[in-house]
Amino acid sequence: MQRRPSSYIPTSRLYFLLFLVIFIFFWRWTNGWQRCAFLIVYVKRCQRILNKAHRFLCSSAGDPPTAPLGNRDTPSLLPSELHNPHEPLIVESPTIGYIDLDNASYTAPNTGGRDRILILTPLRDAAAYLDRYFRLLSELTYMHQFIDLAFLVGDSKDDTLKVLQDEVKRLQAPPGLFRFHSVTIIQKDFGDDLNQNVEERHSLKAQGTRRKGIGRARNYLLYAALKPEHRWVYWRDVDI
Predict the structure, then answer these.
(1) In the Cβ-directed half-sphere of 229, how many Cα atoms lie within 13 Å?
(2) Each residue of 107-123: b (16+ CB within 10 Å) or e?
(3) Predicted pLDDT of residue 20
(4) What is the pTM of this model?
(5) CB 184 within 8 A of CB 149
(6) What does the pLDDT look like over 154-213, one tens digit per residue?
């Protein structure tokens, strides 16, 4: 990064004037040995300020960072200019990715587009609903090869995970007439022990804890499953 002297000199002058005022005050109200001690501190502080100004000096703001300091057509602004002699570091690693979504285009699903869709469903004690859920899912008219499915199974006391795995294997197995692009199953328990019967979970008293748990599960599922290629996210409850 390049810095022009004008961005630093005013700060240096401010420090200089401040120490000058303090120096005059001490010189008037102190004796000889105190004046000598303060004079030494004052000189050292001024040297540090000037060294910082020289260290960050650039003679031209238009030069690239790799160019040697000093412009042949422009005279030096200070007699001594310092520059960084090291070569620029170029980082090339497979762990560093770059995603540009500025030019991403979106089309409405009913226009016959081919946008990737992500269907998210959090599950808890949902074994009894999965058969009907997958039957309805198979009837979607949007092309299945552009649909990704993601499930989060958490705090279940029944065999939701096993039933889900069986349904996914049946759905994705050859010949794959209703096969989707991909299916992701995430298992994450949050320690929620709220009773799942209809009366208790829909009671007003339980809504605070219940909604907090639902929001936490949805956020976890979204962050784990969403990819840059997805253009739409469809949240679907298992019991609908």
Answers:
(1) 7
(2) eeeeeebebbbbbbbbb
(3) 72
(4) 0.55
(5) yes
(6) 988 899 999 999 999 999 988 777 899 999 999 999 887 766 666 676 677 777 777 888
